[in-house]
Amino acid sequence: MKVTRRDLLVWSAGATAGLLFTPVPWKLLDDVSIWSQNWPWIPQPTRGPVDVKLSFCTLCPNGCGMRVRMAGGWPVGVAGAGCHPVSRGALCPLGFAAHQLNWHPRRLSRVCYRGNTSSWGEARVAFTKACGEGPIMIIDGHPGRAASSAFETFVQRRGSYRVVPGQETRALAPYGTWSGIPAAALGYDLENAGTIVSFGAPLLDGWGTPGRLTRLWAERAAGLADPQLHLIQVEPSFSRTAARAWQYVTIRAGGEGAVAEGVARVLLEEHLVPARGPMPSLTLVEVAEQAGVSTDAIRDLARTIVARPPVVAVADDNNPAIAALNVVLGAVGARGGIVRRSKHIRQDVCAEAAIRGMRAVLIDSTVPWDFVPQTDAEVFRFAAWDGGSTKADWLLPAPGFLEDLTDVPTAPTSGMETYAVAPSLAEAPTEVQSAAQFLSSIDPTLVTVDKVIHTRCSEIFRQRMGTLWGQDVTPVAKFVSVQKLEEELWKGAVWIGEPHHAGGLRCQLNDWPEAIGPARTSNASPPWLVPVLPSLASKLYQESGLRESPEGRSA
Fold first, then answer.
1. Fewest CB atoms within 10 Å of the CB: 58, 114, 289, 530?
2. CB neighbours (10 Å) of residue 491?
3. CA of residue 369 relative to chain centroid, distance
């Protein structure tokens, strides 16, 4: 009998269908699952009490509130904390699966010197020698922490301290330049804005503290034909934020600054706002050519923006033209605009410039892996995960997620001061040290992180201002001692300061700022701050409809 290809296909389909109704494949799947869960490198929580602790995510400066499920003293699950006054229960995909990162295959487990295994003792000897031979520099990725104070103290007599600003802080840089107030001391009063004009910033999918604007949008705009809050998205691609915004304006890639100039020109020419700032240099025809939009569309956008004040423009990165538009709108130092949230932050020096004259450079684990210092000095880099090729001479394993005591200062985009404490909830699988611990082993007189945290708690108590948000909401003035206040912070409460007052921030522009080059055209969410992703985070990120992760990052 001749067997045809069709007969084979029919037989295969029938056999497959019959196999599904037998226990064989399901038993095999069950066995594979059991075997895979008992591989020796997979940690198994010990039997013990199961409880939930409040803490904060420290993978980025936003410090979202978390509920950490603990089993036998180990974190086994993470969820958003609804009692957090800013994040309000929201977490990014990375935060939901962050407890998996500590067991990632690319977790650093040994000290390396130029690719070869070394030791902590040899690293200390090398760094101590460098300190004695010349100036050193410490580079910080999350300034304002207790560890940052230790860094600054250590380099006072030995060198200098620099920071790597995040994308959201860079967007505030022009206001700092024009006002003399550090960009890190500024924020956005979005809660009181009537119209938000976003120039490429992913406001509804990852910008700032996840949950802050999405909750605000859900409460004041979602589902309403004429919402209380108008969100206008101006960017080249149809992003998730553009799809959910009240109005979307499509432009040519790199045309964000030109559109801002065109809108400012219309506002000034038609006297739609009180005259603030100089007239932009571009004409509407030139703006239309650069941005790929008509002059009528630019005029309509300008009139729409001012229809519901207060108005604030948000840039995706450092763009002086968009900052100047806020000056024209009167949004700088005003309710619903750019505000000064703190008077106690000093101006930091950016580390992106070339580093010269240094004997050694120490890079904290909070600095993004793709940051490469422009220096010929000996580089000591702390990291919890190996992100691949690096210019560092020394690679030093740092604590991972929830493995180190730290504090959480105000998030970069917040319009109000906040403060929280993230205690250590897990033990590292190998010997690790934070940069602050490493420096303390070299200089025993250096103030420790826990003492700095205690000092900051004492300052909050002494000022008798603000409110603690935790399981209950309690004004600071009602605490009878600093010990009680500090206990609540260690239990997961977050301090939030008094509402800001308009004023105290003034930008005087005599000339329209020059363009700094085409704006970045990527519509990716804020940069990942770790070089690896846990499997669950990768799945959530892909299936949630968010954009692909940047190239070169391992999942």
1. 114
2. 14
3. 14
Neighbouring-strand partners of residue 201: none
Please compute, for residue 145, the number of CA atoms within 13 A of its CA located in the half-sphere on the CB side: 27
The candidate with the shortest Cα–Cα distance to 404, out of 132, 131, 150, is: 150
Strands 418-422 and 159-163: unpaired
Structure tokens at 241: 């934020």
- Under DSSP, the state recorded for 451 is H
Short-list 233, 177, 107, CA closest to 523: 233
In 354-426, which ranges are continuous DSSP H helix?
none
- Does residue 27 or residue 216 have the better pLDDT? 216
Contact between 297 and 555 under an 8 Å Cβ cutoff? The reply is no
Q: How far apart are CA 356 and CA 359, in angstroms?
A: 9
Contact (Cβ atoms closer than 8 angstroms) between residue 147 and residue 398: no
47-104 per-position pLDDT tens digit: 778 889 999 999 999 999 999 999 888 888 999 998 899 998 999 888 888 888 888 8
- Joined together, the tokens standing for residue 8 give 């084979």
Q: What is the 3-state secondary structure (H, E, C) of 479-498?
A: CCCHHHHHHHHHCCCEEECC
User: At 248, is the secondary structure helix, strand, or coil?
Assistant: strand
Mean per-residue pLDDT over the chain, rounded: 86
CA distances, 108 to each of 41, 74, 123, 283, 365 (Å): 14, 20, 15, 55, 12
Q: How far apart are the C-alpha atoms of 86 and 472, rounded to whole Å?
A: 15
∠418-176-509 over CA atoms, to 5°?
140
pLDDT for the residue 222: 76
DSSP annotation of 332 reads B
What sign has the CA pseudo-torsion 104, 105, 108, 114?
Answer: negative
- Please say whether the beta carbons of 513 and 323 come within 8 A: yes
What pLDDT is attached to residue 530?
55
Q: Where are the domains of the chain?
A: 5-37, 190-336
Contacts of 471 (CB under 8 A, 6+ apart): 54, 83, 493
Q: Do 147 and 161 meet the contact criterion of CB atoms below 8 Å apart?
A: no
Structure tokens at 292: 């790929």
Rg (CA), the chain: 26
- CA distances to 120, 288, 385 from 396, in Å: 8, 51, 10
What are the beta bridge partners of residue 422? 406
Q: Helix, strand or coil for residue 19?
A: helix
Measure the N-to-C terminal CA separation of the chain; round to a whole number of Å. 52
Q: Which amino acid is at 165?
A: P
* CA distance linking residue 522 with residue 534, whole number of Å: 24
Dist. CA 17–CA 14, nearest whole Å: 5
Calculate mean pLDDT across residues 456-463.
95
Strand-pair category, 136-140 with 159-163: parallel
Each residue of 307-317: b (16+ CB within 10 Å) or e? ebbbbbbbbbb
pLDDT band at 353 (very low <50, low <70, confident <90, very high): confident
**Topology of the domain comprising 190-336:** Dimethylsulfoxide Reductase; domain 2 (3.40.228)
